[in-house]
Structures are given as structure tokens and as C-alpha cells.
Amino acid sequence: MEGVMMRGQKAFAVAVRAPDGRVVLHSEPLTNPLYTSTWAQWPLLRGLTLLWDALGLGTRALMWSANIAVADEKDGGAPVKFEGPAAWTTVAVSLLAAIGLFFVLPTFLVGLLDAQIQSDFLHNVIEGIVRLLILVGYIAAVGRVPEIARVFQYHGAEHKTINAYEAGADLTPEAVQKHSLLHPRCGTGFLLIVVVISIFVFALLGRPPMLIRLLSRIVLVPVIATFSYEFIRFGAAHYGNPLMRALLSPSLALQKLTTRPPDDGMVAVAIVALRNVLVAEGLLPAETVPAAEPVTVTAD
To answer: H or E stretch including 130?
Structure first.
């Protein structure tokens, strides 16, 4: 909320625009074995890191940003504490709702047509198409909500900042704004690849009874995610290849729904987050973190 999270190999940082206009920065070293162990870098297994980013690290960053962005004006602007059992219950319910919407619902809906679809493979292809339509429709719908539209602007700021850094440009709002809103390693593209690969994985299972079919859609999510991660990692590393660019073009097209042109203030927030990570990686001197805006650094 009102900010950007950046992750490197050694640390992650979250920079948020507080209600009073300050850029508040939080950073932590990555000490979890998923980041530090040798086995965590093995192909396929390293996809677990991505899942942890989304479910663990990403959730904590979201809750921390909510504490900063939703301030209690009656208490002198002190952050509202979105934490504890209530917060994690909210996250758990949201996760279950997402699994139900994007994995269980398409299976159930297409399952109603079991008698009309003779081919198991065609059945799974139709299920995948329904899943994709629900995903795209959901993203397009929530993008109309003003608060989510701002999140998508910060998403665009994140992409522009990373693209600028990888191009060797200066990390200033003016220079960063010249770069693309799209990036081949984006999580939005990852979602699309998950849907496509799920078609082939589920096709191998045929058409078991409905209960087993529904359970397989849930249990196999981590497996599909690891293969999807390897594909997007390989694709980003070989993005200069025309064939790979063509294969990744649908995922980049989908990013147009989840990114919006950011303003300079949003880009400045993304720059603060990226600079902090680069300092932790030893790629920038520490004095470059504050940038041109007032920054308050917080720590647990």
C-alpha cells in the first residue's frame, strides 16, 4: 500500500509514502534457509523461494505497509497496527478465496459439462481457458478500483526503476520515467504461465472423480509454480532471443492490466527501496540510500 518492495539476494526493502509525505523505509536481511542454503538454488527447488516471497515475505511487507499507509490521525499520525491473529486470519481467508476463485471454481464449472465433453484433454483445455478468463477478468475489474489503480501505479514505478537500473541509467525520477512499464520477470506474467502450464499438468491426470480433481488443483499448485518459475527465469535470461520474446509476449501484454504510469513521487519511493537493496548487496555506498526525499528508516 502506497509503496514498493524490492528483494535482492541478501536483503529486502519496503519503501512507503506515509500520510505526512515522508518516505518510510523498512529493510531486513534474508536469513531464511530458503535464501541462504545451497539446495535452495537448485532448479525446481528454488521455486519455493518465489512461493515464500508471495506468501510469507510479501504478506509481511503488505501488513507493514498497511501500518504506515493507514495512519491514526487521532493518535498523532501513529500507524494503525495491522498484525497478530486478526491480520493473519484476514490473509488466510484471502488466500483461500483466491484458491477457490482461480483453481476450484473453474474445475467445478467445467465439471458440470462432463457429460458433454468426451475428450479428457479438451476438457482440461477448456478448464484452463475458463481459469484464464477468470484471472484476466478479475484483474481488469479490480483495476477500476481507485485504491488498486494506485497500487498498479506503484507496480509501474517498480518496473521502471528496475529497467532503468538494468540499463545502467541514473536512479533519478527523470531518468527512470523514460523506461518501460513492462518487465519479463514480473509476477503478473508468472500468473499467466502458471495457468498455461497447469493445462498440460492437469491433462496428464485425465479426468478423475470430482473430489480428487478439486484436490489435485490445490495440491499441485506448488509443483506448477516451480516449473513456471523455471520457465520465466530461463525466458528472462534469454529475452534477446526472438523465439523467447514471442513466447513471453502474452505475459508482457497481461502486465498492461497491472501497471499504470506512475508520478515522480511514486518513482522516488521505488528508487529508495531499490537503493537500499543495492547497498545491502554491496553494489552502492550507504550514503546513496536517502535520495532527495526525507526518509525514516525503521527496523523490527
So the answer is: helix 120-142
Segment 122-177, tens digit of pLDDT: 999 999 999 999 999 999 999 999 999 999 999 999 999 999 999 999 999 999 99
**Beta pairing class for 3-7 and 71-72:** unpaired
Task: List all residues 6 or more positions away from 148 whose beta carbon is below 8 Å from its beta carbon.
Answer: 142
Q: Are 189 and 251 in contact (CB under 8 A)?
A: yes
* H helix intervals, 220-263: 221-237, 242-258
Asked whether 155 and 259 are in contact (CB, 8 A), the reply is yes
Predicted pLDDT at 86: 65
Specify the long-range contacts of residues 160-167, CB closer than 8 Å, at least 24 apart: 160/262, 160/267, 160/270, 161/4, 161/267, 161/270, 161/271, 161/274, 162/6, 162/274, 165/274, 165/278
Q: Kindly give, in sequence order, each residue whose CB lies less than 8 Å from that of residue 145, ignoring residues fewer than 6 positions away.
A: none
134: left (phi over 0), alpha (psi -120 to 50) or beta: alpha
User: Does pLDDT of 80 surpass 60?
Assistant: no
Range of the domain at 247: 3-298
**C-alpha separations of 232 from 131, 187, 228, 266 in Å:** 20, 10, 6, 27
Residue-wise pLDDT tens digits, 27-76: 888 887 777 778 777 877 777 776 776 777 788 888 888 888 665 444 44
Query: CA 95, 232, 282: angle at the middle one, nearest 5?
Result: 90
DSSP secondary structure string for all residues of 262-292: PPHHHHHHHHHHHHHHHHHTTSS-GGGSSTT
Residues in the chain, total: 300
Contact 127, 114 (CB under 8 A): no
Number of domain units in the chain: 1
